[in-house]
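3.2 Worked example (two chains)
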Amino acid sequence: MRKVSAIPVLLPAILLFAATWAGIPAMADEQAAARQYRVARRLAAERSPDAATALRKVVDLAPLGPLADDALVEQGILAGAPGWPADLGLLTGGGMARAAALMRTVTEEYPSGDRIHEARYRAALLKMEPVVGQDLSAARLDLLTVANDPAAGLWAARARYVSTWIDRVNGHEARARTSLERLRIDYPATAEGALARIGLAQMILQDGDYGEAAALLQENESMLSRSPITSRVPEAGRLNGAAIRAVATRSFRMGLAGDRRWNLSADSFPATGIRNADGLAVDSGSGTLLSDRKAGIVVLYDEQRGKQGQWDIPGPVAVAVDRLGRIWVAGDAGLVMIRNGVAETVADLGAFASPRAIACDTLGSIWLLDRKGTRIGRLRPGTTRLESVWQGEDRLSSIVWDGRRMLALDTRGRRVVEIREENQLKTVVAGTFEKPVALASDLLGRFAVLDDRTKRVTLFGGDGVELGGYALGAAGPSRTEGLVMYPGGGIAVTGSTGPTVYRFR
């Protein structure tokens, strides 16, 4: 009689035990997972709060199935994993931790999945978030890995664009320009190509070539208006491109030096409670942001739509808006950030209490100029302690970020300077002012200086060459104090008293 082996009999039980011990369901139901995935996608499209739970169930039904990595990536997107640099800064700490964990699961456990390149790309963007631990070098390395993978498809194009974005903010302009030119040629009819043209136009404008930039952006706008990719170009990119194009076209056609035809509108804000405009800034949509220290309020005002927001903040003396649309207020409560309409105190100002000015750079750092104008501090992303950047005998009155560097107005020396590392100031413009009181910059890397004695605003290119001047004359306030430049062109001036903003176009 032949002896029967026990192995075939025991094998199913062994496999069942192994699968259970490993945490994998013994009978993965891929068909049920596919049905569940369709339901989850529909819930996500409807922005249902149940979408994340539905996606988790897809993984539970078939953890090794073909849709598991899809469900994980889309859970990460629901948690807020950014898709573009324009999305950075919108995540809360909890959302970022969840998104990072989900992307890490995909990259580590599903390296052969069809969402691996997207997961690596989004994980790289999470390293760029303006929080403690921000690591642009590691992010760029991860992006280049995706960009150089032949199987990455359009994720390679997007990774190339974002790595170029990092190059630009780090000051590697020659490398960035070469990369943008290649993106523009290699991916002409894509969102990445459209954004490359916008970035390239900004760099061309900084060189003063308004004609080439205007033509490039006009071509871009024409393509976006008739192409289905419009919905995939970030809103910030479209608005940025349109604003730059408007200024570039106007500058090219009319000539900055000869343009004196400015229309004036004086917006007064007594109904908002603003009695004196202590702080002045412009938001990403060309709204005007004002703060009144005595009234303890900050108001966002749109010329067409009226008041868009008001926040009660003790003693707000200076305001600024970063590239993510977040409002920063320095006042008696410390440094306050307003995001999605909600104000929260993020840091104590210490020696920089009641600062003279505040500015935001591209990397997410907040810069403050103290009340005396003799010290500049910087708050890096996610930190709560200000570090000293500069201290000296010069008297500074304004600080602005021009897209590449931090500039300041030295009222005693009557010059514009660049704030450099190692406590250094580099003169950019000098000898052309009588009583400079305010400094502003725009999307093109240009900057302007308001002279209270001559009642003139002088505009300069990024290289410090004078481009033209706007004589305010009797149209503006008798004593000028604040100055801003709007994304779509034009300037606004405030006086030392009163709630009126004088806007010139």
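3.2.1 Second chain
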Amino acid sequence: NNPKDLDLWVKARLPVDHLSTIPTEWTLEVSREKKFYGKIMDKAIVEETITLLDRYDQIDMAMGLSTLLSTGVLGHSPFGSEAPIGVARFLAGESVGKSVYSQDIFSPKVLFNLQKCKQNILPEKEDLCMDSQMEVIDVPELHRTFFSNSMQLDNNTPAGNRVGYLTLGIDVSRILQQLSLATHEATVLVSGGRVVSVYGPDGKPVKSAEWSRLPIENMMSETSGIVTIGNQELFFLHMIPFPGTDFHFFIFNYKDKEFALVDTLDTNSTILINHISMEMRFVSFIALVVVLVILNNLAKRMTKPISVLANATELVAQGKLEHIKLPALETDRKDEICQLYHTFSKMVEDLRDKEKVRGVLNKVVSPEIAEEILKGSVHLGGEEKEVTVLFADIRQFTHLTEKMPPAEVIQLLNTCMTKISHAIDAFGGVIDKYVGDEVMALFGAPVAKEDSALKAIQSALTMVQTLSEWNKERLGQGKPVIEMGFGVHTGLVVAGNMGAENRLNYTVLGANVNLSSRLCAFAKPMQVLITDATLKSPQ
């Protein structure tokens, strides 16, 4: 905290850190005042100086820690249980110093590749580097990457020939950082077909994942080009500073900035050309307008039927056939468009007729059966199917209606059966027939369904609930309640179209149908009886 003590400390540190060539007063100024950045030196240079001072301290402490480990007193591995976790350095009389951790300066994996080194060093010579070839060493644990080369060292002694290898590495990040600061642009190092390191224009590392998705294969074959990163288009320059090596440096700049001069020249030349050719362009514009008007009228006359057909096609897709109105064409037209127009008009009329038939069929048979009839695939015959059959019958119907006029009886039946039909349709059932006050429904025919038994039971319970709510209304109106009994059974039946070729009826026959009918007759009012076969049916 004492400025005088700080000055003494800096002066003492300069010779130790081998930076005595830097003016002492300048270094003292750096340590005293952060505002000095804007006075004399660029901020990056000042930060670099401070980084160098810290770097020399780290080197001294790393050497001390390495020497300690080489003695074997605390083990030979910096990651052993007895090894120190780091080393600290204090000046005499001070309680605060600097430190480094072992994990920050040692790598837990072997970085030296002995086999590769032996392959690249010529065997007949001594003390040689790796044939002037550099290698990239990536240390993800330290988040650092190095350019490296190894040297073979031979020592012939009376005890024998000793061979060792010395590997020196240069931190790639420092090279990229200097390149970024010098060019004020983003720089990328690529080696081994992948992005090794990225630095921004401010000389700071960039960790964005977008840089890892660069089209490396395409960029490697180009000396320059344009790529897209995120939403930005960037211009790049490709450099190989060390021929014969797999080190590729790329410098990136915004496309707009890179081509600013070209864009300016292009803009100015365009203005000049426009000024010179104004009259010519005006005449051309008038002629073009006249031609466009003529072509527009001709195109409208030719394409009007197509536009009408396009709108009509959209209405057909929406099922709004009643809204389609096709105007008559000129009688003198005999082209392909006219033929298409008349064919489409006939198709719409056929679809309208088919929809009318569908509407009538849906009222007398189920939608599934109606669809089969419209497809023309209905024919005489039957097949065995496992179907769940539901019977529902109004209890004491004769007693309820014996004094009612026929019109009221029909109205009562229609109202009741409408409510029952909705419950059947809601669970995918098909109404086979109405027999007086009784209704027969199929689940699993004509289209087989795995959960037909469950759907039949759910449908019956829904009918009970619907009738209960309806009876509350009837009681409020002073009318008698309507109660029904329900029988549900699952089993094999003969299902198919029966009758004559010109009049068919889809139904099911068999003992299992009769069993379901008898269950319905045996059920009490508002009671649903099911068989064991229905209970044990899958799903």
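3.3 Remarks
DSSP finds 17 helices and 16 strands in the chain.
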